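hey so i finally got around to running the thing on that chain from the lab meeting. sorry it took forever, my laptop kept dying and i had to restart like 3 times. anyway pasting the input first so we r on the same page abt which one it is
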Amino acid sequence: MTETTPKGFASDNNAGVHPEILKAMVLANTGHTRAYGDDPFTRRAVDKFKKLLGETIEVYFVFLGTGANVLALQAATRPFHSVICAETAHIHVDECGAPEKFTGCKLLTIPAPDGKITVDGIKAHLHGIGFEHHAQPRVVSITQPTELGTVYTPEEIRRLTDFAHENGLIVHMDGARIANAAAALNVNLRDITADAGIDLLSFGGAKNGMMYGEAVVFFNADSARDFKYIRKQSMQLASKMRFISVQFEALLTDDLWWKNASHANAMAKLLAREVERIPGIRITRKVESNGVFAVLPPHLIPGLQRKYFFYVWNESASEVRWMTSFDTTPEEVFDFIESLRQAVAET
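ok and heres what got predicted. didnt touch it at all, straight out
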């Protein structure tokens, strides 16, 4: 008997584990090795990251995406600082106030209709510098791809990082789906991180075929000096770290990260193309990664959700979000489209 449900389009978090990653975890489950990252699996995974992102980086593995974001920000700030982000940012909307609780920092948000922040948006928060009554801006945090599925180009990132650095700010990237962004842009990971001026990166694994595990990447090793203590104090130091590390080792081998993300992106494009052919359904956002946002008649949503679970993004507008994953198949997309078409026809 299975306890899982049929595949839906709610989130790439809902997908299972890629077979190659699961196989690697099983192979790592042999014998004993040292705990807390002092093991060959972790060393090999770190080496893989350095080949992708640069030999001078520092990499630390943690359990969760929220943990990666919070710890990265904690390493870069003091409690009197502020973090500038989009009003749609995951750190602002979906992390239950954890960034503010554990860093002590104030989040300053920028309107971002397409999910992306701009230099002008950052400028609006650069006041009261040196004034002890105001939280002091320290970090700009961007999400790549954004929470709305849009993607920053390397040039857009460089404009933000250049301006931030000129004003004494550092730039953090929430890369929970960074593989999808690189695949969508057809660029190397370095092109949208190190070479674009990013200082801190939360690198996602769970949304791209891993069971669990994220990485915090420092492009300036000096800023990582005390991070091992922050990670331990924040309860994100895994004792059996090999089971996180070996997943990253597999994900970063033979471009599996790219293949998984490219497939998810392609399924989103297919879904969007077919949705656009159905009268009465409107795509609301650019489909640039693995998310499709659409407005449909509200009375259709509950019935569709019972068969293919997904989330309502904006209840007042009847806007929904459909996410595709590394294991989404064309057949599943067409089955969903047929159900959607039938639901529309019956109204």
